[in-house]
Amino acid sequence: MFYVRAKFPVIAFGTGSTMKYKDVTDYVGQAIENGFSHIDTAQFYQTEAYVGLAIKESGLSRSSLYITTKYSFNGSPRQAIQQSLNKIGLSYVDLYLVHFPSLFSDFESGWQEFEKMKKDGLTRSIGVSNFNLENLQKLMKIAVTKPAVNQISFHPYNYASHKAMLEYCAKHSITVEAYGSLNSITRNPGGPVDAVVNAAAKRLGATPNQVIFSWVRSKGVAIVTTSRSKERLQEYLAVEDLPPLTAEEIAAIDDAGAKGPPSRLVVARLAMQHKLERSSYLVMWLVIAIMFGFATFFMF
Questions:
Q1: Which of 27, 38, 50, 99 is catalytic?
Q2: pLDDT single digits (tens) 245-287
Q3: For residue 240, how far is the Cα from the chain centroid?
Q4: Is 66 a catalytic residue?
Q5: Phi then psi for 95, rounded to 5 degrees?
């Protein structure tokens, strides 16, 4: 497993997104079996107990896994982390994040509680999630212990808006961790990013997903991703074995992303085209089945 900074794995298996509110025991177990050592969960996802069960079933030592969870609801952060630890079945987590800046009505007192939990050994590191540059600057003014991580939605189409924050985080040694990076090609197909990503994928003999993750890594950003597919997980982990993108390819993805995602009309048109193609295949197979049925009837 590759590390972005000491003891922080560059890629994590996330249990949010489509995994929220579900029994993810088998999927987390599958991720661990295939080489993921960093597991990301949160109060809000309601997956902590299942993560704990998968950890237990893996039989791995605590030190071989890196566990992140998040403070997602109003109330005492100390009570919240204790509840999370009880659900996961651990005495500490490796990283505890403030899930949203709005959870702190007062940044100073809220962050002091986080600093105290780190000092008391309930978490090895503390950080934030979904903080913009203004939120971070406000926090850094009062923090004794700076946040180790800021986990954000990050992909080519929002890179330009996050550029200043990435520079600020690099200056203050705050690791930026990305979720939703593949949305640029999965939820926004047909946009300007597709062509340049596909060209780089062809050169590398890689998949478009791997190119997006290579681009994320070129920005010094770590990755949170998820999949129910064993093959997808292996595809994601194989990114670290790929040759790096060229400076020209990185710049091309930057420039394409700056043009913005395709309009909703284009996305809707592509989705409709996909549905029509699926429908035509279904009709074709239905006709074949009916014809086969008639043929079988007359034969016998």
A1: 99
A2: 999 999 999 999 999 999 754 544 545 554 544 544 444 444 4
A3: 16
A4: no
A5: -150, 130
